[in-house]
Amino acid sequence: MHGKTWVLCLLLLLAMGLGSQEALPPPCDSQIYCYGDLLHQVQMAKLFLDDKEFVDMPLSMAPDQVLLSFEELSKAHNYSIPRQQLQNFLAKHFQAARQELEPWTPGDWKDSPQFLQKISDTKLRAWAEQLHQLWKELGKKMKPEVLSHPELFSLIYSQHPFIVPGGRFAEFYYWDSYWVMEGLLLSEMPETVKGMLQNFLDLVQSYGHIPNGGRVYYLQRSQPPLLTLMMDRYVTHTNDIAFLRENIGTLALELNFWTEKRSVNVSSGGKSYILNRYYVPYGGPRPESYSKDAELADTLPEGDRDALWAELKAGAESGWDFSSRWFSGSPNTNSLSSTRTSKVVPVDLNAFLCQAEELMSNFYSRLGNDSEAAEYRNLRAQRLTALTAVLWDEEKGAWFDYDLENGKNPEFYPTNLSPLWAGCFSDPAIADKALKYLEDSQILTYKYGIPTSLQESGQQWDFPNAWAPLQDLVIRGLAKLPSPRAQEVAFQLAQNWIRTNFDVYSKKSAMYEKYDITNGGQPGGGGEYEVQEGFGWTNGVALMLLDRYGDRLTSGAWPALWEPHCLVVALLLSLLPSFLPQ
Prior knowledge:
signal, globular, 6-hairpin_glycosidase_sf, mainly alpha, Glyco_hydro_37_CS, three-stranded antiparallel beta sheet, 13 strands
């Protein structure tokens, strides 16, 4: 081929995108809810305060008709439809968001569950009763047309009703549901839990994993894998071994997804280990945050945009969307455009999987399948070895996320102690080390809750926000240890969190997804949307703490002792009796 002709052909190939890196696939195949010109024009016009509003709107007619009408309208306006015409188009072709969900009062809800009797403080008991009432407000079921005409909805059909987080989160979410289920079991609602579990098991059968949430635009990303733990809590409460036997293969299928699609090799000390990460190799902006993702990517060269969008989806898969945790190690450590979630081997993800492997071993033993039980016991042992070799820091007394390019991330996150919660450690002296780590990090000086990090990035999974599930990871992690000192710190942390929740509820008559632990505790902020009320997992954790410590927790003002360094002082005072002669 003549040189000049060859150059022209190459330029043509590059212009067509054939000579560049292949584009990543979209998050689902819907040209309305996941990718395409309709989604782009509507979201970039910012017709709604929250991009999620549009992608939650059902269609008024078949998708092909909607796309054809849109193409005609777009052509008539030279592919740039004016705002008013876009609004008119939506009014004709779409219904209001979330119309496909109906309120649902759980059939197994009842007055006065037993755990309320454990709560000594009368104000806290009355509050716990109100939290128990909230399950009726957060119950949802799907209209039958979601099953008969799924093409008209972004909602993924689920047969059984469920409890939602609340606010903009009107569908189910994966990891939220674990703490919701813990609260429901305390409220003596096992049938509701079984229905939610069955929904998740059905999703694994359909897709091989549980999506982030119940919408098609969430399909290609999951969330922290807690399904096996949900099953364990349900079976422990009900002894429903038949349900376990029916579904043990589906639990294994979900863990296989994490093994096959989310594993990574890590070298440490001359050896290679297999651990897990969050990883979502799908392109395009997140549909529910489309305009924000598109504008963020505008700051990058065009060839780097899909990679950023994939990293943002991985951040969403982590549940921590978003946090400086995922852009630590990049040159601009406070920029969301530096998100690099897939380069991080997270402590909590691997602790959750370690726990799941132990539970699967126990399940198979209980069902009489010794060979599978041994297989999962070996998987857990391998992971425990890897956690210790790659993530554990003996000097600091905690586990740390491992950055594949930069090594351990030394920053504080509550998840640095998540192996305690998951029971995934072997060091008998771990209690003293963990407490020293909390003291050295000055975490015990925060009297309204454990901060999500010590970095103030403006993202919602950073300081000054505190989140219920992270309180649980630390509190129950310490409470499980055979150390009176660790158990006392766990109680004091529980007291702090309950009082923050109770005080905000007393002022606002609402529970929130997150709390700002500065200035006396208040609803949290930062991130991509306004703080949401409800709130599923916050209610669940509050009920768990009220159940565990109800005879000791108080609703009154913080004692003067609980100033900075207070908890450490209280801890020392609590230990005095053990040193006195009997």
